[in-house]
From TrEMBL, chain A:
UniProt-recorded name of the protein: Formate hydrogenlyase subunit 4
Keywords assigned by UniProt, alphabetized: Lyase, Membrane, Transmembrane, Transmembrane helix
Listed GO CC annotations: plasma membrane
Topology versus the membrane: Multi-pass membrane protein
Residue ranges of the TM segments: 15-36, 81-103, 109-131, 143-163, 183-201, 241-261, 267-293, 305-323
Naturally occurring in which organism (per UniProt): Raineyella antarctica
Domain of life the protein comes from: Bacteria
PANTHER family for the chain: FORMATE HYDROGENLYASE SUBUNIT 4 (PTHR43359), FORMATE HYDROGENLYASE SUBUNIT 4-RELATED (PTHR43359:SF1)
Pfam families per the UniProt record, alphabetical: NADHdh
GO molecular function, one term: lyase activity
Locations listed in the record: Membrane
Chief location of this protein within or outside the cell: membrane
Automatic annotation (TrEMBL), chain B:
Cofactor: [4Fe-4S] cluster
PANTHER family noted in UniProt: FORMATE HYDROGENLYASE SUBUNIT 7-RELATED (PTHR42989:SF1), HYDROGENASE-4 COMPONENT I (PTHR42989)
InterPro entries: Complex_I_20kDa-like (IPR052375), NADH_UbQ_OxRdtase-like_20kDa (IPR006137)
Family stated for the protein in its record: Belongs to the complex I 20 kDa subunit family.
Annotated source species: Raineyella antarctica
Protein name in UniProt: Ni,Fe-hydrogenase III small subunit
Amino acid sequence: MIEAVGLDSGVIDSVLVIVTQLVLAIAVTPLLIGVMRTTRARLEGRVGGGIGQPWRDVAKLLSKEPLRAPGSTPVLTTAPILLVASSLLLCALVPLVSTLALASVPGDLFVVVSVLLLGTVALALLGLESGTAFGGMGSSRHMTIAALVEPTVLLSIYALSVPTGTSALASIVQARKLDPTSLLNPVSLLSIVALVVVVIAETGRLPVDNPSTHLELTMVHEAMILESGGRDLGWLEFGSWLRLTALLGLVVNLAMPWGVAADAAPLGLLVGLVTITAKLLVTGALLAAAEVFMAKLRLFRVPELLAGSFVLAFLSVSASYLVF
Amino acid sequence: MSTGRILRLIARTGRTTEPLDDTADHGLAIRDGFVPPRALHGSAQVRHVDAGSCNGCEIELGAAFGPVYDAERVGVRLVASPRHADVVAVTGVVTQNMAGPLVNTVDAVPHPRVVVSIGDCTRGCGLFAGSYAVAGSVDDFVEVDVHVPGCPPAPEAIVAAFRKVTGR
């Protein structure tokens, strides 16, 4: 039957890996946010909404009919969908569960950064769409941060790709898994630190942006979504959280590539699922715990932080040519 | 504060949240025929509107979301935009200048929505009744679903009012 429609087993394996990763992303993302919020609440001496609260919030938002201002354009409805679609694509392309090289879909570093930028631009357009001062301000800040973040993402992963000789993320993770000594050399450490800083900036966490702020003047991400409600807001929240899962998953798999499957065998996928879930939740809890000790940076200091991470990434690239 | 001092503070403080009291009713006045919307079960976002309050209720509302009373554990969170909200929490008398913005804010909240009025001023204008700056009480402008009496009401009463909406 399968041969009859011209599908070989490689394509089926790829599809299986992609489906597994998407299911993982959709199931684990609200849990990750719940763990992060609960960690923060416990350290602040509060009980918090519980680990299931993000699920309840998103389910409620998706069931509510949005109220759109008269005169709003289709951007208000399409941008949230575009953000979720790009985030899901990101989760499919980044090697979360398995490093099976996807022959038909390139999981290339440049493709991943472009997909990331697609969601960023959708959000920025949404911010401009509302026509309010805060929306435009949020969009301009968001694009400023994106312009500083993208080169660092490219450079830091490029440094890791030099020893492997390929820019496919899956191959980089696979090579690092097979050669554990490469995890602790200066190239790797510098680029992972640079990557962590830019992931924090890109996903709007402290100290770059405060996801729970009520002060419009300090907002970046929140300012762009002020005019979205109901279902639109539900998709926006979920899309932003999925980005966090994908980027955090990429970083932990580059830093600690153990447990990532190399093929689509059921046992390997199961081990991959369990390890990536554990790695994501532990990293999320650590990130949330670190945020308790931080205040938001003044906006004009953010470029300094991101320039610092760019320098680390640049040093990492230079070092990679000296080491290898 | 240094990281070490914050760590010691966290270890020393532990959990400060007080347990929920299910027996007290805090004199909440619930509108006849009010049924908490099914969609808001377990999760409700609150937009706070100060329609002309003396800030007494604001202090208590702030305390309700603080570590001791922790309204977040019943599924309630404060948000920055009425578009994100399910519940509008109104405090104070409605002043001439806030009558329009109050109605607009409630209109900007997607359905199903709930209005919670907090403090004696929102019903009968309290101390400020008869002032030339007062346009009326909250009931005169929007339909109030849950009213929390008190001048100011205790944070427990405010959390109890939110629990009527989320059912947790």
